[in-house]
Design brief:
The chain is of the alpha/beta class. Helices cover 42% and strands 16% of the residues. The chain has ten helices and twelve strands. A six-stranded parallel β-sheet has the order 2-1-3-4-5-10, sandwiched between helices.
């Protein structure tokens, strides 16, 4: 029985990875930030030595995009130094490392899906810090390091855009939602499944190390996503009105185009994630129950 170690264990993605592993013959160790601070190299080395995992899934991250602009050193400690600490521990133990990354490593100004080998060029601090983590994995674990970039994540186990829109539908007459940012809404359950399949493929020698894109197929805008949420709620979709990013200025720049290509999965014999709207329809009952306390 192989052991899987999941960091950032209190987050919604980590919970879904752990749940997905229940169907596998695996011993699962889930460590929250309180139990394992990945910025502490000694603690990371000790945890990997104690649990002797075959696979480490790093779900720990600084995800406050706007705060990273003002606190880049602190974000870098989590998103850059933390993965490097895990890399060193995994290199010493021989464990496979799955590092969850982000679309923000790209400039976000293209008009066609970003391939896994497309040049990176982050425009903000968050993207720069996540890219530092990627480079540590790819440079130092060329045979056992995996980077899985994702975007627009939602799930029942935490706060996210979909749950926020469910809540706002009940209290707002109309909603103005950005229609000039394109991306791929991705259910954490779907991403968790691909992470587990990738880890199993790594152990079996069928999944090459390197970069994969873990986002849903298809694409939409935040406006399009919100209209679909309203439709699933049985609400009037005309209550959702399109607006521009200029109307919602944030400290950190948002990518205008965050659509990722999925060609690399074929090399691992794994199907890319399904279309975003199909996944949302399946996820919706759990999201609605989580948000409304049903």
């Amino acid at each position: 029985m192989s052991t899987w170690l999941i960091t950032g264990g209190a987050g919604m993605l980590a919970r879904d990875v752990a749940a997905r592993l229940e169907s596998e013959d695996a011993n699962v160790v889930v460590l929250s930030r309180k139990e394992l601070d990945i910025t502490d190299p000694g603690s990371v080395a000790a945890a990997v030595a104690e649990h002797a995992p075959a696979v480490v899934v790093n779900c720990a991250a600084w995800t406050a995009v706007d705060d990273a602009e003002e606190q880049e050193p602190a974000a870098l400690a989590v998103n850059g130094d933390g993965p490097r600490n895990l890399v060193e521990a995994c290199a010493a133990s021989g464990a496979v490392l799955l590092q969850v990354s982000t679309d923000y490593v790209f400039a976000g100004d293209d008009a066609s899906p970003y391939g896994e080998d497309h040049p990176t060029g982050p425009k903000g601090a968050y993207g720069r810090t996540k890219l530092a983590g990627e480079r540590a994995v790819l440079d130092l674990l060329p045979e056992t390091g995996y980077v899985v970039r994702t975007a627009w994540l939602y799930g029942a186990g935490g706060g996210n855009f979909v749950r926020t829109m469910i809540k706002l539908e009940g209290v707002k007459d109309t909603l103005d939602v950005v229609d000039d940012q394109r991306g791929q809404p991705t259910w954490t359950v779907d991403l968790a499944d691909r992470l587990v399949r990738l880890g199993l493929g790594a152990l079996a020698g069928t999944a090459p190390a390197g970069v994969y894109h873990g986002t849903s197929s298809g694409e939409t805008t935040w406006f399009g996503l919100t209209r679909e949420i309203f439709r699933l709620l049985g609400a009037d979709t005309d209550r959702v009105r399109p607006t521009t990013s200029e109307a919602f200025k944030r400290p950190a720049p948002r990518p205008a185009y965050s659509v990722l290509g999925h060609d690399r999965w074929k090399e691992a014999g794994i199907e890319p994630i399904r279309d975003w709207d199909e996944a949302l329809a399946e996820a919706f009952p759990a999201l609605l129950a989580a948000e409304r306390g049903a």
